Fold:
Amino acid sequence: MIRKCAGIVLMGLALSVHAQTEQATPPADEQAASPALQEINALGEVAMQTGLQAIQESGGLYPFAIIGRTDGQTQLVGYQGDPALRPPAEEWGEALFLRLREMAAGDDTIKVAALVRLHNVPAKEEGEPPIPGLWVLVDHRDERAWVLFMPFLPNEDTGKRTPGEVIYYATDQPLFPVGD
Structure:
Protein backbone atom coordinates (compact mmCIF):
# COMPACT_ATOMS: atom_id res chain seq x y z
CA MET A 1 0.00 0.00 0.00
CA ILE A 2 2.76 2.47 0.88
CA ARG A 3 4.47 1.70 -2.41
CA LYS A 4 1.23 2.54 -4.19
CA CYS A 5 0.90 5.72 -2.14
CA ALA A 6 4.51 6.65 -2.88
CA GLY A 7 3.93 6.29 -6.61
CA ILE A 8 0.72 8.26 -6.44
CA VAL A 9 2.36 10.95 -4.34
CA LEU A 10 5.18 11.30 -6.83
CA MET A 11 2.68 11.74 -9.65
CA GLY A 12 0.65 14.23 -7.62
CA LEU A 13 3.70 16.17 -6.53
CA ALA A 14 4.92 16.48 -10.09
CA LEU A 15 2.06 18.92 -10.66
CA SER A 16 2.95 22.57 -10.52
CA VAL A 17 2.42 24.04 -7.08
CA HIS A 18 1.24 27.24 -8.71
CA ALA A 19 -1.50 25.36 -10.56
CA GLN A 20 -2.51 23.66 -7.32
CA THR A 21 -2.66 27.02 -5.52
CA GLU A 22 -5.09 28.33 -8.12
CA GLN A 23 -7.33 25.24 -7.72
CA ALA A 24 -7.30 25.16 -3.93
CA THR A 25 -10.20 26.88 -2.23
CA PRO A 26 -9.11 28.83 0.82
CA PRO A 27 -11.26 29.07 3.92
CA ALA A 28 -14.11 31.50 3.25
CA ASP A 29 -12.78 34.42 5.30
CA GLU A 30 -9.23 34.01 3.99
CA GLN A 31 -9.85 34.92 0.33
CA ALA A 32 -6.94 37.40 0.25
CA ALA A 33 -4.52 34.70 1.34
CA SER A 34 -1.05 35.26 2.68
CA PRO A 35 1.81 33.38 0.96
CA ALA A 36 1.84 30.92 3.90
CA LEU A 37 -1.90 30.25 3.55
CA GLN A 38 -1.46 29.81 -0.21
CA GLU A 39 1.20 27.18 0.52
CA ILE A 40 -1.17 25.48 2.97
CA ASN A 41 -3.88 25.44 0.30
CA ALA A 42 -1.50 24.08 -2.35
CA LEU A 43 -0.14 21.27 -0.19
CA GLY A 44 -3.59 20.50 1.19
CA GLU A 45 -4.94 20.13 -2.34
CA VAL A 46 -2.07 17.84 -3.38
CA ALA A 47 -2.49 15.78 -0.20
CA MET A 48 -6.27 15.51 -0.70
CA GLN A 49 -5.91 14.48 -4.36
CA THR A 50 -3.20 11.97 -3.50
CA GLY A 51 -5.34 10.44 -0.76
CA LEU A 52 -8.35 10.18 -3.07
CA GLN A 53 -6.24 8.53 -5.78
CA ALA A 54 -4.92 5.99 -3.26
CA ILE A 55 -8.47 5.18 -2.15
CA GLN A 56 -9.68 4.83 -5.75
CA GLU A 57 -6.79 2.55 -6.71
CA SER A 58 -6.61 0.35 -3.62
CA GLY A 59 -9.92 0.80 -1.80
CA GLY A 60 -8.22 2.12 1.33
CA LEU A 61 -5.57 4.42 2.71
CA TYR A 62 -2.75 3.98 5.19
CA PRO A 63 -1.74 7.28 6.83
CA PHE A 64 1.07 9.22 5.18
CA ALA A 65 2.50 12.73 5.20
CA ILE A 66 3.91 15.17 2.69
CA ILE A 67 6.51 17.70 3.77
CA GLY A 68 7.35 20.90 1.88
CA ARG A 69 10.81 22.37 2.39
CA THR A 70 12.16 25.90 2.04
CA ASP A 71 14.06 24.91 -1.13
CA GLY A 72 10.82 23.87 -2.85
CA GLN A 73 11.46 20.13 -2.48
CA THR A 74 8.78 17.79 -1.17
CA GLN A 75 9.18 14.58 0.78
CA LEU A 76 6.83 11.67 1.38
CA VAL A 77 6.81 10.27 4.91
CA GLY A 78 5.17 6.88 5.26
CA TYR A 79 5.54 3.52 6.89
CA GLN A 80 8.86 1.96 5.83
CA GLY A 81 8.94 -1.26 7.85
CA ASP A 82 7.96 -4.86 7.27
CA PRO A 83 4.35 -4.93 5.98
CA ALA A 84 3.62 -7.93 8.20
CA LEU A 85 4.52 -5.84 11.27
CA ARG A 86 2.67 -2.71 10.19
CA PRO A 87 0.66 -1.24 13.09
CA PRO A 88 -3.07 -0.53 12.77
CA ALA A 89 -3.78 2.63 10.77
CA GLU A 90 -5.00 4.60 13.81
CA GLU A 91 -1.89 3.74 15.79
CA TRP A 92 0.40 4.60 12.87
CA GLY A 93 -1.45 7.90 12.29
CA GLU A 94 -0.80 8.93 15.90
CA ALA A 95 2.86 7.91 15.68
CA LEU A 96 3.25 9.78 12.39
CA PHE A 97 1.70 12.92 13.92
CA LEU A 98 4.25 12.80 16.76
CA ARG A 99 7.08 12.12 14.30
CA LEU A 100 6.07 15.12 12.18
CA ARG A 101 6.02 17.34 15.28
CA GLU A 102 9.51 16.12 16.16
CA MET A 103 10.77 16.72 12.63
CA ALA A 104 9.22 20.22 12.45
CA ALA A 105 10.78 21.21 15.78
CA GLY A 106 14.24 20.05 14.77
CA ASP A 107 14.46 20.97 11.09
CA ASP A 108 14.09 24.62 10.05
CA THR A 109 14.02 23.66 6.36
CA ILE A 110 10.53 22.21 6.81
CA LYS A 111 8.03 25.00 6.16
CA VAL A 112 4.76 23.16 5.53
CA ALA A 113 3.50 19.64 6.22
CA ALA A 114 0.34 17.62 5.67
CA LEU A 115 -0.81 14.47 7.45
CA VAL A 116 -3.34 12.38 5.51
CA ARG A 117 -5.59 9.67 6.96
CA LEU A 118 -9.09 8.29 6.95
CA HIS A 119 -11.33 9.51 9.77
CA ASN A 120 -14.86 8.85 11.01
CA VAL A 121 -16.91 11.80 12.26
CA PRO A 122 -19.69 10.92 14.73
CA ALA A 123 -23.17 11.34 13.25
CA LYS A 124 -25.38 14.15 14.53
CA GLU A 125 -28.25 11.78 15.29
CA GLU A 126 -27.85 9.15 17.98
CA GLY A 127 -27.87 5.64 16.56
CA GLU A 128 -26.72 6.78 13.12
CA PRO A 129 -23.43 5.41 11.79
CA PRO A 130 -20.38 7.69 11.76
CA ILE A 131 -19.51 9.56 8.58
CA PRO A 132 -16.24 8.36 7.03
CA GLY A 133 -14.01 10.73 5.13
CA LEU A 134 -10.56 11.85 4.10
CA TRP A 135 -8.89 13.97 6.79
CA VAL A 136 -5.88 16.18 6.05
CA LEU A 137 -4.08 18.24 8.69
CA VAL A 138 -1.99 20.94 7.03
CA ASP A 139 0.32 23.20 9.00
CA HIS A 140 2.82 25.92 8.08
CA ARG A 141 5.62 27.39 10.12
CA ASP A 142 4.15 30.91 9.58
CA GLU A 143 0.41 30.19 9.73
CA ARG A 144 -2.05 28.36 11.96
CA ALA A 145 -2.88 24.70 11.30
CA TRP A 146 -5.96 23.77 9.28
CA VAL A 147 -7.89 20.55 8.80
CA LEU A 148 -9.51 19.70 5.49
CA PHE A 149 -12.18 17.01 5.75
CA MET A 150 -13.94 15.47 2.76
CA PRO A 151 -16.88 13.35 3.90
CA PHE A 152 -17.83 10.24 1.95
CA LEU A 153 -21.60 10.54 1.78
CA PRO A 154 -24.08 7.77 0.93
CA ASN A 155 -25.34 7.90 -2.64
CA GLU A 156 -28.87 6.51 -2.75
CA ASP A 157 -28.70 5.92 -6.53
CA THR A 158 -25.53 3.80 -6.51
CA GLY A 159 -25.55 2.47 -2.95
CA LYS A 160 -21.94 3.59 -2.66
CA ARG A 161 -20.34 6.54 -0.94
CA THR A 162 -19.31 9.60 -2.93
CA PRO A 163 -17.04 12.49 -1.94
CA GLY A 164 -18.84 15.49 -0.49
CA GLU A 165 -17.75 19.12 -0.20
CA VAL A 166 -14.46 19.74 1.59
CA ILE A 167 -14.89 21.29 5.02
CA TYR A 168 -12.10 23.55 6.30
CA TYR A 169 -11.56 24.36 9.94
CA ALA A 170 -8.73 25.73 12.05
CA THR A 171 -7.24 23.37 14.61
CA ASP A 172 -5.35 23.83 17.84
CA GLN A 173 -3.18 20.76 17.23
CA PRO A 174 -0.31 22.14 15.15
CA LEU A 175 2.61 20.20 13.74
CA PHE A 176 5.00 23.12 14.20
CA PRO A 177 6.05 24.36 17.62
CA VAL A 178 3.83 27.15 18.91
CA GLY A 179 5.49 30.52 18.46
CA ASP A 180 7.40 29.58 15.29
